[in-house]
Design goal:
mainly beta, five-stranded antiparallel beta sheet, 10 strands, globular
């Protein structure tokens, strides 16, 4: 399998709206995967996370993607978060950390970093 992530992040007033979609370039289906979302600043203590997301530490979330078919996009994952303090920018690192035992032969696209400015603009990656 060759799992990659595409999405949009928007920061406004200390709140980030993240929409993330996994893409599996094959050659095998992924029964489930986990994506790590690591923020450059601490998140607020209280969050209303989607059911398939958990906190790993003060800056990091782990979210399940669900199944992703070959040469297909997976289910859209919406992750709204609040930052611990207002920041003019935040860097988001997105990494695949588990893929249901499938071997990824193209690891070069497993991780990426996105700079998101507090402008209310949507940053696409």
């Amino acid at each position: 399998m060759d799992l990659a992530f595409h999405g949009v992040a928007q920061l406004e007033g200390g709140a980030v709206e993240l929409r993330l979609t996994p893409w599996n370039g094959g050659p095998a289906a992924v029964p489930d995967a986990t994506v790590r979302l690591r923020w450059s600043v601490p998140l607020a203590a209280a969050q209303q996370l989607p059911a398939r997301c958990v906190r790993e530490d003060e800056r990091t979330l782990l979210c399940g993607t669900g199944a992703v078919a070959v040469d297909a996009a997976g289910e859209l994952l919406r992750v709204p978060v609040r930052l611990g303090e207002r920041s003019s920018e935040v860097t988001l690192a997105v990494d695949a950390v588990w893929a249901g035992g499938a071997v990824d032969r193209g690891r070069s696209n497993d991780g990426l970093k996105v700079l998101v400015l507090d402008t209310g603009d949507a940053y696409t990656f």
